Every structure is written in structure tokens, then in C-alpha cells.
Amino acid sequence: MTPDRTLEKLDRDGYVILEGVIPVDQVPHVRESVASCLTAHFRAAEEQADAVRAKGHRQGGAGIQALPGIINHTQAFVPYLTDSRLTYSVQSLFGDFHRISGTSAIANHPGNDRGYWHSDWPYNQTNAAHIPAPYADVCVKLSTLWVLTEFSPTTGGTLVIPGSHRDSTNPSGGDGFDREAPHPDEIQISAHEGSVILFDSRLWHCVATNHGDEPRYAMNFGYAPWWLNLQPQRVGSPDHTAMVVEPRGKPNETPLVPEAIFAKLPDDVKPLFRHWVNPHG
Ligand SMILES: O=C(O)CCC(=O)C(=O)O
């Protein structure tokens, strides 16, 4: 697909699939390193999710595991962050000074619950810090789902509603929708291992059930322009304290990258993380 066709599809449907961002022979290495980090952090992730649920917030359902800040645990995927097609798309929308707003690893275990319809931060209305609807029709953040296990109806490819990024709201906070119910316009994404699903963070999407017998591994990385305020995701920042801690709202926290890890990143990747480095880490 040409770069312009990629941007046209992203604009029209709200998402586009970039094939082969991670070369197929490198996918097992990336998947295995991400999977072992998820396994090591399984208990901590479950406790974190339970703590959020205990405050009455909607979390991903049973069998869905997320590990924010995967770059702090493995850097196996780092060479692919600056894939030329991905960079071209992000740069076309946000200019030179774009950056990564978060790196999360995901495991959807066999038989996991279906998720709820939502758009990603800062549009997810269940997060304490979110842009309130109605939204202006502007793309302020891109999400990227990195396919480490093939997405199919069997493994639970992500459910999306093409074109929903143009809507002025999304169902995560209710707003007249049943966020738990199937939607007549939903489609399920199929994608090969190593692909990246690039989408406008406003796109309505939902976790599907993995009907297979192995976990479905993926990663969700955000790309943001320099002018999007990421501070509500930063523990200890005044914005996080005011918007998340004091109202006792649902967080969307992104761990800082320790200086020692940042220092070893390739030169062309450093600009994506230099805003989020912990000098004491
Ligand atoms: O795992 C999936 O299929 C979707 C993940 C998702 O909804 C998210 O990361 O926001």
C-alpha cells in the first residue's frame, strides 16, 4: 500500500494495517520476550487490576492482562519503532516532534471475557483524565496494536467499528450506548504476526474472546504530538495529582523509562522517549 493510500484509509476508516513491521522471522523472539515479561508480572498486574476494580472502575474483563511500560522490561521490539511507513504516517499527522505516550504489552488468555467498547486515552471516558465529549473532529493521538500472535476469529482479533473515529463521543462512559453489547457495524480484524494496526485513538474498539488454546500476545503503543499533555499519565506530576489522585479516579499511568535503559536506545528512537525519562532510575 502506498503511503498516501495508508493515510487515506486511516482517515476514512479510522484504522489501517501495516504488514511486516516486525519481520516474520523475528516475531517469535519478540513474542517470547514479551510473553516472559507478562508471565513474570502476572501477579502484580492482577493485583493492580483488582485494586482498580475495587474502586468501582470498569477494567478489562477476566483473562485480559496488560503490562504498561513494556520497554522497561524488554527492548526486543525497539528496532521496529521507527519503521518507515509508521514514521511517515505519524509525521504526516503530527510533524517532527511526535513521541511515544506509552508502551503496553497485552495477553488475552484462552476464553478471556469480551471487553467493552471504548476509545483509547485521552478519549476513554472511564479514565479520570479524559477529553470530555463532544469531541472536535481532530486526530490528537494514534494507537498502534502490534500483532505478536496472529489476529483471527479464533484468537480474538480486535473488534472495531470502521468510521467511528468521526463520532463526537464513544460508548466507554455510556452516553446512550450499551458498551458491553455487540454492535451491528462491528468487524473483527484479522492480521498476520508482525503487523501493526495503526488507528486513530478515537476509533471505537473492543477486546474479543480468544477461542484458541494459547494466549494471544500483542502490544499497544501510543504516538502523540508534542502538544498533547501527557502529564496526567505521570505519577507524581501536578496534573496526575489533581486529575487522578485527588478525585480518586481511574488512572492511566505510564511508567517513566529509567535513564540506564534510555541511554542504550538507538539514536533514532531516543527522541520518542526523551520526554519520559527518569533521571534517577
Ligand atoms: O487486545 C485487543 O484486541 C484490543 C486492546 C485494546 O482494546 C486496547 O489496548 O485499548
Please work out how many helical segments DSSP would assign: 6
| Beta-strand share of residues | 15-25%
Succession of helices and strands? HEHHEHEEEEEEEHEHE
Q: Would you identify the regions where 5 or more consecutive residues have pLDDT less than 50?
A: none
Q: Which fold name corresponds to the CATH topology?
A: Jelly Rolls
Characterize the overall form.
globular
* Count of the domains: 1
Q: In angstroms, what separates the terminal alpha carbons?
A: 41 Å
The largest β sheet comes out as: 6 strands, antiparallel
Helix proportion range: 10-25%
Structural class: alpha+beta
The whole-number mean of residue pLDDT values reads: 95
The CATH class is: Mainly Beta
CATH superfamily: q2cbj1_9rhob like domain
Query: Which cofactors or ions or other ligands sit in this model?
Result: 2-oxoglutaric acid
CATH hierarchy: architecture: Sandwich
